Amino acid sequence: MANVFDVAEYILQKKKQVPAMKLQKLCYYSQAWHAAWEGQPLFDERIEAWANGPVIPALYDKHRGRFLINVGDISGNPENLTAIERDSVDRVLAYYGDKDSQWLSDLTHLEDPWRNARIGIPNGERSNKEITLDLIVEYYSSL
């Protein structure tokens, strides 16, 4: 199984340079849709419901303090993705890849996985509540 760094580097190879928030959302949507389509996760790293939408803390630690992320900045190995995993990410990029960071963040705020993970947490307040794979699969499989 690939890890989130492999997925992020694959995205960066396709897009060349991506704002950090957009990279987070593209990795989130890759995980969500792959799990919905294939019935298994794309990566094992935890996803949390931060104020600006879903964030993978392990990936955040790699780009903390940087706005733009370039190919090679994450140190993942895209070769670790199977053909099926690459296809899932490619389909996510085809749909979400031209959207800007704020549009993607706003979209996640409208969707149940992030909203349900943040029940009881005021808007804008920090949180490290997990968005579980069960919440993700339940929601995206129903669309």
Number of helices: 7
Number of domains: 1
Number of DSSP-assigned strands: 4
Rounded mean pLDDT is: 96
SS content category: mainly alpha
Largest sheet: 2 strands, antiparallel
The arrangement of helices and strands along the chain is: HEHEEHEHHHH
> Termini distance?
25 Å
**Rg calculated over all Cα atoms:** 14 Å
Shape: globular
Helix content: 40-55%
Beta-strand content estimate? 5-15%
Low-pLDDT segments: none
Strand order of the largest sheet: 1-4
Topology record:
Layout: H1 4-15, E1 17-19, H2 20-38, E2 48-50, E3 53-55, H3 57-63, E4 68-70, H4 83-96, H5 101-110, H6 112-117, H7 133-141
Antiparallel strand pairs: 1-4, 2-3
Description of the structure:
This protein has one domain. The strands form 2 sheets. The protein has a two-stranded antiparallel ribbon. The protein has a two-stranded antiparallel ribbon with strand order 2-3. α1 packs across α2 and α2 crosses α4. The chain is globular. A hairpin with a 2-residue loop joins β2 and β3. Helices cover 54% and strands 8% of the residues. The chain has 143 residues and is mainly α. The protein starts with a helix and ends with a helix. The protein contains 7 helices and 4 strands, in the order αβαββαβαααα.
